[in-house]
């Protein structure tokens, strides 16, 4: 039986007791509060509480856009009921990544006849079901879908093709060689392509980049303004993207102003791609550019291409020199106030006057970086990782001091060795470090006494004198994403690069980055994403505690190869840090010899909002009972990957135990991948 609202809010016990009635707020305030409630809860629960909320929940500001992406609690029945009640009011529907919903759920989208924008990436969708749905959605202007094996464009009806002819924006993820629905989208202005085609089938057969039968129609690009292609590793993906680019090389759209191709590894130029780049240099004026490194290393394109008001540049892993960067790309500081994102990851010579006769450990030319900072003063995102950017002793010219001028930065990626002092400080032995007395690698380890660390935040590190990194972060208080990654770091399980079993040792200057520098990160109150990798001088991990206590907006945390490789000396402090991370959703931990024991999972249980967990530990161990207890306490977890040194039998038994738990739906798991358990 429901209680009266007065009893729920509290009873007045005296004249000085004031009860705050939520319904007493203005409609504008209530609508703002309700905008944070998931659509399914809003319509299926909140709407049924009282008449006023029932009216407010149907306000256009709340019903025009429905986002089910990452709403892992939504079910087929909830989606059906939601679309039944407000389907006619929805203008934008995002169901991206709802892989657990059966394909029949998509049929309910037919109720949303006024849809303008629809995202079904990651959903089960056949060509026949797509045809039936799009035949009804005549107002659709933006679409995102997957193209899976078996897709047949000839099954699309004339009504469906009529709808596609009016689509202006298309995002298409390809799992099979195909043009998908691109040839039907004759009015396209924005095309986003994601190539995820495997080189081999599940049966082991080698796949070809040739298009499927019935793919004789070619794309129409005459109105195209934005072209983006992201390739997963594999030669088939490269073959298929060349078919898309061949049409562009014949006739480059005059209105093209964004051209981005992200390709891992080597992606050789062909005659068609050279013709395309030459045509772009002659006929278009770009605002954003990203090309494979092999296409940029000749620099001929950058010498002739014209830019209007550029907002995004990516020259990842190309051999661009600092002199060329200043003279040709940023044009001596002219017209670059519009640039908001710059990716120079892996550009080892981008802060040096030239790329000839330069060693990786040589100091950068601070005047080049200063020109970059002055010219691109409105940068929001900057990536300087995967290179050795060593600063000299010039007063006020350290990399951190120059970057402190970029007050608008929201995300920053730096190599670990770039945040240390000058060469003079680098020659000194690390403070409080014992790593130089220990053997490196995975050999026999010397015994080391247990390191102590402050148990409270108040006892943490004070700002070291003349610490340029502390000064940098004091100036970037709005920073939301930070990456500190060793210049030579290579993950044991990379996404777009081949795995390297024997990674290179850390840069010598990185040996001077320890707990005090990590503690400096705690100044970033609005930090949401943090990555720390290959910091060999982490001794106690005390800086992590301060981060957990003071960075309460932290959502994603990735730690890899911290401290000594043979012993996880920072584990006690890390477990104390986890007790503060109430809002953490994603945790990735890559550390050899890591022991995922009961104490660790008990500390991890404090992260009540955790959704995804990944542990990668060569020669590591785990306790199955501790995993089960953790899964029972953290009910929001939908993915759990553990790659350790446990036996295959132990892995299978653990997975079976988790699968048998009630009220959980689990995906399939390939035991050959290691201790991987995927929860849905």
TrEMBL record:
Transmembrane segments: none
A Pfam family matched in the record: LRR_FBXL18
InterPro entries assigned to the protein according to its UniProt record, in alphabetical order: F-box-like_dom_sf (IPR036047), F-box_dom (IPR001810), FBXL18_F-box (IPR047948), FBXL18_LRR (IPR045627), LRR_dom_sf (IPR032675)
Annotated ranges, domain F-box: 19-66
CDD domains the UniProt entry points to: F-box_FBXL18
GO BP of this protein: SCF-dependent proteasomal ubiquitin-dependent protein catabolic process
Any one of the GO CC terms: SCF ubiquitin ligase complex
Protein name per UniProt: F-box and leucine rich repeat protein 18
């Amino acid at each position: 039986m429901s209680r009266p609202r007065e009893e729920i809010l509290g009873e007045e016990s005296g004249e000085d007791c004031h009860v705050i009635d939520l319904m007493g707020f203005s409609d504008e305030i209530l609508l703002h509060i309700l905008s944070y409630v998931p659509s399914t809860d809003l319509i299926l629960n909140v709407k049924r509480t009282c008449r006023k909320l029932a009216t407010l929940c149907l306000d256009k500001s709340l019903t025009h856009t429905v986002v089910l992406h990452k709403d892992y609690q939504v079910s087929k029945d909830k989606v059906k009921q939601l679309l039944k009640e407000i389907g006619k009011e929805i203008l934008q529907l995002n169901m991206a990544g709802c892989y657990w919903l059966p394909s029949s759920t998509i049929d309910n989208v037919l109720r949303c006849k006024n849809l303008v924008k629809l995202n079904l990436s990651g959903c089960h969708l056949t060509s026949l079901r797509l045809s039936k749905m799009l035949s009804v959605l005549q107002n659709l202007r933006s679409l995102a879908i997957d193209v899976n094996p078996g897709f047949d464009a000839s099954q699309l009806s004339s009504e469906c093709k009529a709808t596609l002819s009016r689509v202006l924006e298309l995002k298409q993820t390809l799992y099979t060689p195909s043009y998908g629905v691109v040839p039907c989208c004759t009015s396209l202005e924005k095309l986003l392509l994601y190539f995820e085609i495997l080189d081999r089938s599940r049966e082991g057969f080698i796949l070809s980049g040739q298009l499927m039968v019935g793919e004789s129609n070619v794309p129409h690009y005459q109105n195209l303004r934005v072209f983006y292609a992201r390739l997963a590793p594999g030669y088939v993906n490269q073959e298929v993207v060349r078919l898309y680019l061949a049409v562009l090389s014949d006739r480059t759209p005059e209105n093209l102003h964004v051209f981005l191709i992200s390709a891992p590894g080597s992606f050789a130029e062909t005659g068609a791609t050279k013709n395309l780049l030459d045509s772009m240099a002659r006929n278009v004026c770009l605002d954003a550019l990203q090309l494979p490194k092999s296409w940029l290393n000749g620099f001929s394109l950058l010498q002739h291409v014209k830019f209007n008001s550029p907002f995004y540049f990516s020259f990842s892993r190309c051999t661009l020199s600092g002199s060329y960067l200043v003279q040709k790309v940023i044009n001596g500081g002219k017209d670059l106030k519009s640039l908001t994102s710059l990716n120079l990851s892996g550009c080892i010579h981008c802060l040096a006057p030239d790329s000839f006769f330069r060693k990786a450990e040589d100091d950068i030319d601070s005047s080049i970086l200063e020109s970059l900072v002055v010219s691109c003063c409105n940068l929001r995102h900057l990536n300087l990782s995967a290179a050795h950017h060593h600063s000299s002793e010039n007063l006020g010219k350290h990399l951190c001091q120059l970057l402190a001028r970029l007050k608008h930065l929201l995300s920053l990626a730096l190599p670990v060795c770039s945040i240390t002092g000058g060469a003079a400080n680098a020659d000194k032995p690390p403070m409080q470090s014992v790593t130089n007395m220990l053997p490196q690698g995975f050999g026999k380890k010397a015994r080391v006494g247990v390191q102590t660390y402050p148990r409270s935040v108040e006892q943490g590190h004070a700002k070291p004198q003349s610490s340029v990194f502390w000064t940098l972060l004091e100036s970037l208080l709005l920073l939301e994403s930070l990456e500190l990654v060793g210049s030579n770091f290579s993950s044991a399980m990379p996404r777009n690069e081949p795995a390297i079993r024997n990674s290179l040792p850390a840069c010598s200057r990185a040996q001077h980055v320890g707990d005090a520098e990590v503690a400096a990160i705690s100044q970033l109150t609005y930090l949401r994403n943090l990555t720390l990798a290959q910091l060999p001088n982490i001794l106690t991990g005390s800086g992590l505690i301060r981060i957990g206590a003071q960075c309460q907006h932290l959502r994603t945390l990735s730690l890899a190869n911290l401290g000594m490789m043979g012993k996880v000396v920072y584990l006690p402090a890390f477990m104390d840090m986890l007790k503060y991370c109430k809002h953490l959703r994603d945790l990735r931990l890559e550390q050899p010899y890591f022991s995922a024991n009961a104490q660790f999972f008990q500390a991890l249980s404090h992260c009540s909002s955790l959704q995804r967990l990944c542990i990668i530990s060569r020669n590591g161990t785990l306790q199955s009972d501790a995993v089960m207890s953790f899964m029972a306490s953290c009910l929001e977890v939908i993915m759990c990957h553990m790659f350790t040194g446990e036996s295959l039998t132990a892995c299978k038994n653990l997975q079976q135990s988790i699968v048998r738990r009630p009220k959980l739906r689990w995906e399939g798991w390939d035991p050959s991948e290691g201790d991987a358990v995927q929860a849905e």
